[in-house]
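Reviewers of the previous submission asked for a worked example of the structure-prediction workflow described in the proposal, so we include one complete record here. The input consisted solely of the amino acid sequence. No template or homolog information was supplied to the procedure at any stage.
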Amino acid sequence: MKFNLRTQRAIWGLIFVSPWILGTALLFAWPIMRTILLSFQDVTDLMNLQTEWVGLKHYLEIVQSDVDFLPALARTLRDLVLNVPLILVFSMMMAVLLQGVTRGQLILRAVFFLPVIVASGGVIKEVIRAGAATDMVSTTIQTFQRATVASDIQSTLVVAPVQIIVDRLSLIVWHTGVQILLFTAGLNSIPEHLYEAARVDGASPWESFWKITLPMISPVIVIAMIYTYVDLFSDPLNPVVEYIMQLTFGPLRLGFGAAMSVVYFALVFLLVGLTLRMMSNAVFHLGERG
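From that input alone, the workflow returned the following structure tokens.
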């Protein structure tokens, strides 16, 4: 049987992602189903894993009784709105700057990617507890305040936004390693003849960026955005993740923790789906006719 080019590409794509699909089905599908089932139960005997069906009790408790989960969720969403644009913009800027480096580009990529390996999981929590980011921010702000000769009110108005930005940048830099590699790969995939044609037509580098670079890497932007969502939502410093871990493994309220995990997972899934839906019309694919 002879397949057309589109079908052949689809088949090869399925072949390449089949290990991931198989691993997800075997290693993630069952735990997710078990967590959903546990959210409707109470564990009565932890040693023998005896459970009791309680229906929607835990979900009602989240909405009606728990006073910490929803505020933690609101803080997480607020941080997401602020951090995602900063991470994407910083990553794209670094990738564009790395494109202009002729020597040592691999070393610079490794430097930016190193925090992904070193400062992950419990390591980054210990770094934050040791005050690494806080000390850097305090030193920066103190220096800035000493250089400010305005009144106290003016100093507060100027310093406060700078402090917020610097405080976030200390963590944002640790979340940009993968995104920089994604944007670098996207920039390398842009045909050089497009820039040559733009230069012949008299386009400036700024115009080439907005008319060529940005549309051509729009699929990479979506991928980087989704990755950033998942990375921030699963970050060990995330208030919701910390609260679920403390409540689940502290008093061992496994059913209630499972219910919060299901709500959290549903929110992440909904946000990713909405992002893909809204960004689908803004993505440009080379060779498409529209």
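The chain has one domain: 67-282. We consider this example representative of the routine output the project will generate in years two and three.
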